[in-house]
Amino acid sequence: MDWIQLASTYVPANPDQLTAFDSFRLWADHNRAWILFVQLIIVYYLGFATRIRMPILKTLLLYILLFAGALIFAILDVQLPVKSAMLVAIAILVVVKLRIKPEQTERK
């Protein structure tokens, strides 16, 4: 993942004395693909998974494809706010899930 680190977008104002925010931003830039991978898994299970348990090979293939998508998003994240958009998508899906839950319990 060194090629993603080379495209880091954050440069701290004082590299000698890093604040907690600077350290976090540098860490987030270094682990961009993994952060996006976790966010993609959360979005998949909140919005698209019809059942949680799948056969092992299908689950493995799903994770491989999600990681390939995370690599593509990591490349795009250098210029576009992909991580922020994923957080907004997660927030919207959580709100939708919370609104649908009481409605389903009323039907039963």
TrEMBL record:
<protein>
    <recommendedName>
        <fullName>YlaH-like protein</fullName>
    </recommendedName>
</protein>
<keyword id="KW-0812">Transmembrane</keyword>
<feature type="transmembrane region" description="Helical">
    <location>
        <begin position="31"/>
        <end position="48"/>
    </location>
</feature>
<keyword id="KW-1133">Transmembrane helix</keyword>
<dbReference type="InterPro" id="IPR025620">
    <property type="entry name" value="YlaH"/>
</dbReference>
<feature type="transmembrane region" description="Helical">
    <location>
        <begin position="60"/>
        <end position="76"/>
    </location>
</feature>
<feature type="transmembrane region" description="Helical">
    <location>
        <begin position="82"/>
        <end position="100"/>
    </location>
</feature>
<keyword id="KW-0472">Membrane</keyword>
<dbReference type="Pfam" id="PF14036">
    <property type="entry name" value="YlaH"/>
</dbReference>
